[in-house]
Amino acid sequence: MTMAKIYDFKAQTSKGKEIDFSQFQGKVLLVVNTASKCGFTPQFAGLEELNQKYKDKGLVIIGFPCNQFKEQDPEGDAKIEEFCQLNYGVTFQIMKKGDVNGPDAQRLPRRSSRPSARAWRRTVTSSGTSPSS
Predict the structure, then answer these.
(1) Which of 38, 75, 95, 116 has the fewest CB atoms nearer than 10 Å to its CB?
(2) Is 38 a catalytic residue?
(3) pLDDT digit string (tens) for 16-26?
(4) What percent of the chain has pLDDT over 70?
(5) What are the start-end ranges of the E strands in the chain?
(6) Per the residue annotation, which of 5, 7, 12, 38 is the catalytic one?
(7) Which of 106, 99, 45 is nearest to 67 (CA)?
């Protein structure tokens, strides 16, 4: 069985728009799960700094909020995106909140994470491969 490539996925943004990941072919992707009320929340600032520094060189950062771990992202999609923008100046894409583990896990995060992981990230090179693969 062939595992799907990241470019085969589609996912919903926090505003409900579907994004086809095929549009990111040839770019470097940094896909992360996020939470707006955890000890790592200040990392939004660092992610946005990376975004500003490298977005014109082909870096695409995509955040997937999740409330599965100690309920650290309890708000709805609009509030999560507003929080990220107001507090950390986030301009990179925030996706629809969803699960990253279990039977209801979103396809992309589920494929990109270890089943027991609390936090995950996946880097995909411009050739579509993951350095950790």
Answers:
(1) 116
(2) yes
(3) 999 999 999 98
(4) 70
(5) 10-12, 18-20, 28-34, 59-65, 93-94, 121-124
(6) 38
(7) 99
